[in-house]
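User: Hi! Is it possible to get a structure for several chains at once, not just one? Here's what I have:
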Amino acid sequence: MTDIPNSSSRPVLPDAARPADPEATETSMAAPGAATDSPPALVLRGLTKRFNGKVAVNAIDLDVPSGSFYGLVGPNGAGKTTSLSMATGLLRPDSGQVWVHGVNVWEHQLQAKRLMGILPDGVRLFDRLSGEQLVTYAGLLRGMDRETVKERVKDLLAALDLAKDAGTLVVDYSAGMTKKIALASALIHAPRVLVLDEPFESVDPVSAANIRDILHSYVSSGGTVIVSSHVMDLVQRMCDHVAVIAGGNVLAAGTVDEVRAGASLEDRFVQLVGGRHETGGLAWLRTS
Amino acid sequence: MVADLLRLKLTLLRNSLRRSPWQLVGLIIGGLYGLGVLTIAVIGLLALSAADVELAKTVIVLAGSAVVLGWLVIPVFASGVDMTLDPARFTTFAVPMKQLLAGLAFSGFLGIPGAITLLASLGTVGTWWRHPLAMLAAAVCAVLAVLTCIVASRAITSASTNLSSSRRFKDVSGVLLFLPLILLGPIISGLRRGVENAADVLPGFAQTLSWTPLGAVWSVPADLAAGSPGQAALKFLIALATLAVLTWLWKISLAKALVTPVHSAGVRRTGGKLGAFDLFPGTEAGAVAARAMIYWLRDPRYTVSLITAAVIPLVFTVPALQSGSLGILNFAGAIAVFFLVWSISADISYDNTAFALHVGSGVRGRADRAGRALACGVLAVPLGLIYNLVGAAVNSSWIYLPALMGLTLGLALSGLGLSSVVSAWFTYNAPAPGDSPFKSRPGNNFAVLGTQLGGYVGLGVLVLPEIILTAVAFGTGRPVFGWICLAVGLVLGMVLLSVGIVLGGRLYDKRAPELLAALVKAR
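Assistant: Yes, the chains can be modeled jointly so their relative placement is included. Here is the combined structure:
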């Protein structure tokens, strides 16, 4: 389980096929090679998934350094959710390996899942529970004792501005509140790695700022956060590392400054992903 | 625009078929069933042409009124019958009301129920082939009648869309409307006896119905054939007015539905009440049990199962009352328990993708299995034992009580063990959370049928010792066999439950991501 690929095994990986990011490769190499006692928080190697013969994720490699705030950006349908599902043990990959803090996710599922807190996108919640019950449930499922759960549920609901709706059924929550209660469920067991798929979608600006504060203090205390998003501005401001995914491939990865290479992340993203039209827009849409 | 809506309906149908071949199988089975009904109806209608006008009129008016009533009532019971063109989905498009109405109405013909009703109604043309004028009128009236059916069901649907924007209404009505449905058997058997005695009243009843909106349209050709054009004209006016009024009702409720958001928020409640989470142990399995218990009592899909299990013995009792012996009540406990414990074989399917929480948290299979079985057992075992006591008291058959308790406990425990394995192995296309409990999704008929049959047989084999011992106890009348049955039921039941939880748990540990993938796909 500890046979994390080190720098010597790197040249075998199909990095040469990538269009850009020599620096990114360098930084990601540094993490597994430099300090064996502190392996990267998350390592993906050759992770592949096909749906009905269509490749959704194409043998991607990714290194998320421990203690980083890592953004995963890509257009819709790029394979972000599929990659994160495979990385967190929700979706079995067709091939490839994932390690979280040195623990192989698919060989030692229970051990690996204990290290991770996840906020999946597009799945339901047990929404006939009240918000308080749902987070309690998540805590107890993690094998925590009742007293600790009770204390943390109270703290979490207060921190996420949900205390006043703690007894309301989740099915009656708004979209933003639902996101927040799912986030609380992911945080309850104080994981070492947080994997959040679109955590800010439909969350109001005040709550989003509060969540960002929570995540920043979590990272500064040594935790690792991986967020997927398609809001570039947010990722540029919030994250220190970023990977651009499109069509199931990693187009660039590294620190935010490396990836954006002087431009804004959004411009760099569009440049990498393509798809911008050069026309003057829809002529008939002009109102005057 | 009308053509666009029709095309949309066909496209939706085609895409749903493309998604899964099972949908096609479901459609074909539904189609074959419909064709069977249609064939019988048309043959009957043609045969009526040989009968005298009075009889033909009685039959057609009664059957036709029942069809209209069915179209009115069924959407109320099953909110999910055919919502592919749910008016709420058109809220954001500014479709002119007239065209939306016409499009939705005509799209009603594009579906098995609509098509079958139309063709069967046109069968009345065959009934009146001896009377050319009536035949012509039958063709017009058939179309008018089917249009009335469709508009009536649409009016009801959009009216209920207005009501059901409140979740609580949805939940409660789903459960309440269900009760008459399970009691349908006893109600019908009661009605049947009344009707048998009143066979000679039917022509009069049909005559009355023919002046109401339900039957008027069906009676027009008959009146023409009978040579009373004045009556026919009046009834035709009634039919036209019915359609007009229904259309108007539909229009206003649709107009309201189009500006009412689908969801409205409930009351805010602060926390402090953990409910079942305080009652069950604070372990993984205890948490799963607490969650399951809350769902049994709060989620209509589960509540309906619970009520069914509690009421089903009564359904068997009503016919027994008429025959004078209540012996069946002895087995009420076993029957109720059987329905309850088997229903959790679909537990993970009912979770839908919320199951991701279990997979992501790394819940151990054994804890997941044990928790679900515990919650169901806490409900099933007392229910079964209470029915045992009631049965023994009513029949004063206390001597058989131990045997029957053994059978009930054996069924409960072994059944929970079997369900624990089955639900870690199969996922069904169960109704999603928040859907009507009756909403069956096409496409799992075969899989469900196979699993259900296999499960029944398997459970029968597992409790065979208890069944045999119960039979022996009843046959010999010696209490000792009853006590042996009770002991076997408890011990064998506990063993099978443990085996089921361990095996199911192992299966779960191996297959949890695959189960989740199947749920995501079926979503």
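Strands of chain A lie at 42-51, 54-64, 69-73, 95-100, 103-104, 116-119, 193-197, 224-229, 241-246, 249-255. The longest helix of chain A spans residues 205-220.

User: Great, thank you!
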